[in-house]
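Q: How would the structure tokens look for this protein?
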Amino acid sequence: MNYFPLFADLAGRAVLVVGGGSVATRKVNLLLQANAQVRIVAKKLNAKLTALEAENKILWIAKEFNAEQIRTAFFVIAATNDEALNHRIFHLAESQHKLANVVDDQPYCSFIFPSIIDRSPIQIAISSAGKAPVLARLLREKLEALLPQSLGDMAEISGKWREVVKAKLHSVTERRRFWEKAFNGRFASLVKSQQQEKAEQTLAIQLEQDYQGGFVSLVGAGPGDAGLLTLNGLQEIQQADVVLYDALVSDEILSLIRRDADRIFVGKRAKGDCVPQEETNALLVKLAQQGKRVVRLKGGDPFVFGRGGEELEVLAEHQIPFSVVPGITAGIGATAYAGIPLTHRNYAQSAIFVTGHRKADASDIEWQTLARSHQTLVIYMGTLKAALISNRLQQYGRAADTPIAIISQGTQLTQKTTIGTLANLAELAETAPTPALIVVGEVVKLHEQLVWFGEESEEKRLQKQPHFTLDSLSVEKVA
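A: Here is the predicted structure in token form.
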């Protein structure tokens, strides 16, 4: 261990910063966040430090450095462009047994500044002992993405309840189990959704050990690429006791579920096995009433042809608390990966999402609206009725040579985009792998120009998902 990690209480303590430029400003901003009393020694201050001094947030105590200034400081930061002066400050601080940091000069540091993740009062510091600061920053960014912003609020509330819990639960084991349940259960979900009052009520009920209710999170998994799963969605599925998932949820997404969580398939497939919606609804209620943290994981977005609204209606009827995490719908994700913009000033001023799978007693589709020119039509679950769609659109005025695309297994490694015209849509749909999305409109012409081929796009894709190669995207053009 090159450096011993610790957290210092700087509130009201004097910290000496020698330097008045941009480097010093960065350190001053951090110190002010910790409520330190910042004392500056510099010949002149830059505009930002001048503003802070005018607001009495920092003290500009001198223009020239001297050893006496160190005596009353808690620690010292040297941030000048004079290397000899910086080194002198370090040695003087050492002689007075004061911690010192010469910015970007690691051999002359008795302490260093880590990369910080701030979820006050929860704080995480990451250090590479000055060897690889960029690597430390990258690690911080990854952790930032995984840690919910509500952690600080959770810690604040638990701090208020700590003595109450300690008085009620006398053993360390009992208290540990209580807080583990709280931080992984309904309490955490309520804090995350900014329902602090209900969160504290949940703690009170849990403390009396008679609360048995669970919580359901309706999570959109996106169209397939694990990189398109939202941060909130990732956090929810990694905290779940049980996950109910659809057929459209990719294996990459499923691999992110906690290993000890139960997985239950409740998907539907055209011409295939189908779990009735009523059975799924009942299962959600049953699992929540058992006190479990349940995630209902749906491909795409749960409110875009995902029947998520129906499931929430059932939960509401049974007074089961729930939350919703939106996802990227296939109509947006798959078309973007195929290089097909949904709107374009030259080709389409609007986009319409429709489903080819409807209730038997549903009212007839307004084909005249769907057949308008200068708009993009995105059809979910439409391949089985491709012939009907093609005929109706042409019947109501859409030209037979209107460009169309069938995007199969969108955003996944196996994505395939087939290009054709409205006239041969039915023929192409017969052989298209499923699940597939149909796109009708002049914007399809941009596919060849904008599809993600080329070194720059490939590099960006590889950075996001290292196992991905653009060569795996198959594109077929049909004359």
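The mean pLDDT is 88.

The chain has 19 helices and 18 strands.

Upvote if useful.
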